[in-house]
Amino acid sequence: MSEQEIQAIVAAAVKAALAPAQEDQPVVESKPTREVRKAANQKLNRQINAQLANATKAAKAGDGAGVVKALVKADALCPTHWDSTDKRIKAKAQAFVDAGVVTAK
Fold this sequence. Notes:
Blueprint: H1 3-18, H2 34-60, H3 64-77, H4 83-99
């Protein structure tokens, strides 16, 4: 082996060592921990409950527009897979319609 061949091999090895490593597998993002998810869900549930309370307060004050506004906010906050919470919001809205506080469209 000539000296030029050895230098070429060494240069190729150095170049390969300095090149950024390519990963064969895609980067997998880790899911949030159970505690983090629980805290986020609790916060969201408190926000929804607050809007339902605002709707009740507006109904007691006779403010139909305030009732609708609070119920729309609660519905917007509710994730689509939270079926029981969604049913609770719809039941509350129906109760206000039945009580005559707001009219159904």
